Amino acid sequence: MSRDFVLNSLTLSVVTPMYNEREAVDHFVARLRPVLDGLGVTYEVVAVDDGSRDETVERLLELREDWSELRVVKLRRNVGHQSALAAGLKSARGEYVVSIDADLQDPPETIGDMLAKARSENLDVVYGVRSDRSTDTSFKRNTAGVYYWLMRKLVGPHLSDQAGDFRLMSRVVVDTLNDLQEQQPVYRLVVPSLGFASGEVTYVRAERVAGETKYPLTKMIKLSVDSVTSFSAAPLRVATWLGLVTFMVCLGLVVSGIAAWGFGVTVPGWTSLYIAVLLLGAVQLICLGLLGEYVGRIYAATQNRPKFLVAFDTDEQEPMSTKPEAVSIEAAAVPTQLATHR
Description:
This protein starts with a helix and ends with a strand. The protein folds into two domains: 265 residues, Spore Coat Polysaccharide Biosynthesis Protein SpsA, Chain A, CATH 3.90.550; 70 residues. The chain has 13 helices and nine strands. 53% of the residues lie in helices and 16% in strands. This is Putative glycosyltransferase. Belongs to the glycosyltransferase 2 family. It is found in: Membrane.
């Protein structure tokens, strides 16, 4: 069966990045499968294992024995949620592609509404927008509010303030994303910036069904840094303005020093010198740090290393066993041209 025939015959692809989700896999499949079976369309589920250390892959392979529409794409190592999502988008072949996490905070039942809205209104993107986040902690709600407020200022007003990575996209949008050369993609910002016709479907955000959150504070901070530096040069402008303000302050200190010398006022000079050195040093380090973030991204882009490497894809090659050692052996036999994606 040719790839073009499979592509044209599939209406829907559901891409699900997973990292150490063994506790949530069964719950997720039990909710997702009846929804997709009830849509009356051809579909596939692309479960991308992001280098899990638990038995996520083994359980997915077991579930696949009774669910032929389930594909398992295992990455060789953990590359992060957004890069794992990129691997899923590269593998997906449906006319429409939905991205959803396996923790069931985003309800699979909403997928039908997304597909219906995209078809009836001829939309290329349908965002899942959270109308109620009461299940999240107060800290997470507040920090999320600040994040989206800042992103709307930097990226533009077209960004929804409550849309994450739960969305439906048409084939043309997915192909466009796959053609981009983003080294550190942040799809919740990339997709709106493309300008495709879009709509929204609201839902109530639920609690995680099992396991621990994969977005602790450290990863939330990293996402924020990637979001800002990937979409705006504003921090460099902040560094410039900070340098100008500091220069004016130092100029004022110079004028006051000259005036004090002219009036013969004798004061100890070490305090003002100490403050000036600290102030200038702090500003210089901040500016160098901001500049370093951009230089680091330029360096990564010039290296042109792949964002991810696929160990195996069950749609192209079946692993010999669900045992970890057998999976490793099978992964080693995958041809380089099939295993490497950019």
